[in-house]
Structure formats: structure tokens, C-alpha cells
Design goal:
Blueprint (H helix, E strand, L loop, with lengths): L1 H17 L20 H24 L26 E6 L1 H13 L2 H8 L4 H10 L20 H16 L4 H4 L12 H6 L1 H4 E6 L6
Antiparallel strand pairs: 1-2
Bound molecules: 2-acetamido-2-deoxy-beta-D-glucopyranose (NAG) (2 copies).
One 2-acetamido-2-deoxy-beta-D-glucopyranose binds next to helix 3.
Length: 211
């Protein structure tokens, strides 16, 4: 309750100060004896402008403001700057490793492939193979690869064939981004657009080579 009393006291004091007839009575216009109160803050405020200016000048001297908006390729180089002067466009192409990785694993780690490999690999190599495919529990495996299994060579040919044709046959390229894509078992159009940096490689493109 003490604080309550205090604040009421303060209010009363403030009222006295600013009230009519008080020492800061403003009823007849601004008080007469006014003076600066925060000169030090004013100096610090002006100094901080100089600080900002210094940072901006240092940025200009050491850097290049166009880096703020120019596109960058997969290596982090800027298009249309330094050795890429004049190479203005940014092209995104499919990252073959990221897209074909699962197709290759699906084929190599399938039952169909295992059946074939069992007959030709030594038992040590077979263990390595099963470890790499996470068919055996081993240190490099967190879990099963979760790939759709292929049981026989004929299914392998048709299933892997239709997945690969979406990458290799330009007339089927649109199918990759359709809902009926054979690759939808691993990733669909939504995943590709949603993870552009994973599935696409950005490269600066010389404008003269682009229509
Ligand atoms: C392509 O994808 C692979 C696998 O995801 C990744 O290791 C590689 O860095 C990517 N390449 C580029 C150029 O982004
Ligand atoms: C862009 O292409 C033109 C014509 O092919 C070539 O003369 C020029 O050197 C290229 N520029 C770069 C930076 O690759």
C-alpha cells in the first residue's frame, strides 16, 4: 500500500507544479524560464549520425552495393560482376545428383539388384553393399532408406525407365512437374519448387547465349 500512497503523493506534487499558479504554470503560454535539459543526449545523437556515415563509407570503400541485389550462382559468385561482367541472367537447371540420387538408390538397393549381386559379390562386399543400402543395421545408417522396393528385373526396367525418361527425354520434361510424375514416389513438383536450392543449380548465364 506504500507505493499507492507514494504515487498519489507524486501526482499531487505534479499537479502543484504544473497547476495554475504553480512553478510551471502554462496557462498563459510556455513557461518563461525554459532551458535545454538533455544537451549530452543531443551530442551523442549527432555523433551516432557520424558513426552511421562512417560505416556506410567503409562499406562503399570495401564492398559493392550492387551485391545487395544481383543474383548469385551456386558457387556464391554474383552475376554481372567482376569475372561475370555482362553475364546477367540467372538460369536454374536441375541438380542431377539431387534428382537422380534416389532413382539410382532405388535401383541399386532393390531386391531385384540384390538378387543379382548375391551371385557375384564376395560376402565382405555383400556386407558393404547391404550396409550402404541400409539393408543391414550398421554405423552409417540412421534408418531404412524408405525406398519403394522393386522385386524383379522387368519391373525395374519399366519403373526406373519411366523415372529416368522424365530427366532425359525433353518431351517428357513437363511430366516431372505433373501430379502423375513417375518420380512423385520420391519428390513431386511441390517439393522441387519448395526446395529450389536442393533440386536446382543456379548458374549465371551469358545473355548472348540466351534467346
Ligand atoms: C546438388 O545436390 C547434391 C546432393 O543433394 C549436393 O551435394 C550438391 O552440392 C548440389 N550441387 C549444387 C551445385 O548445388
Ligand atoms: C559471352 O558470350 C560472348 C559470345 O559468345 C563471348 O564473346 C563472351 O566472352 C561471353 N562472356 C563471358 C563473360 O563469358
Amino acid at each position: 500500500m506504500g507505493s499507492c500512497c507514494c504515487s498519489r503523493d507524486d501526482e499531487a506534487k505534479a499537479e502543484q507544479k504544473f497547476g495554475k499558479g504553480g512553478e510551471k504554470d502554462v496557462s498563459g503560454g510556455p513557461v518563461k524560464n525554459r532551458h535545454c535539459t538533455d544537451v549530452l543526449c543531443c551530442i551523442i545523437f549527432v555523433l551516432h549520425w557520424f558513426g552511421f556515415a562512417a560505416i556506410v563509407f567503409a562499406g562503399y570503400a570495401d564492398g559493392n552495393p550492387s551485391k545487395l541485389y544481383l543474383p548469385r550462382d551456386f558457387k556464391g559468385d554474383y552475376c554481372d560482376l567482376e569475372e561475370y561482367q555482362g553475364v546477367k541472367k540467372l538460369l536454374r537447371t536441375l541438380n542431377v545428383s539431387a534428382t537422380v540420387d534416389e532413382v539410382a538408390k532405388q535401383l541399386i538397393c532393390s531386391t531385384a539388384a540384390e538378387d543379382a549381386l548375391v551371385t557375384i559379390l564376395s560376402s565382405a562386399d555383400l556386407d558393404d553393399y547391404r550396409c550402404a543400402c541400409c539393408k543391414l543395421p550398421c554405423a552409417s545408417c540412421q534408418a531404412s532408406l524408405g525406398l519403394q522396393d522393386i522385386e524383379d528385373p522387368a519391373t525395374a526396367a519399366s519403373s526406373i525407365g519411366s523415372r529416368m525418361s522424365e530427366f532425359t527425354d525433353p518431351s517428357k520434361a513437363a511430366a516431372l512437374f505433373s501430379s502423375g510424375s513417375a518420380n512423385a514416389v520420391s519428390f513431386d513438383a511441390e517439393a522441387i519448387w519448395g526446395e529450389m536450392t536442393k533440386f536446382m543449380v543456379a548458374v549465371c548465364l551469358n545473355q548472348t547465349s540466351c534467346a
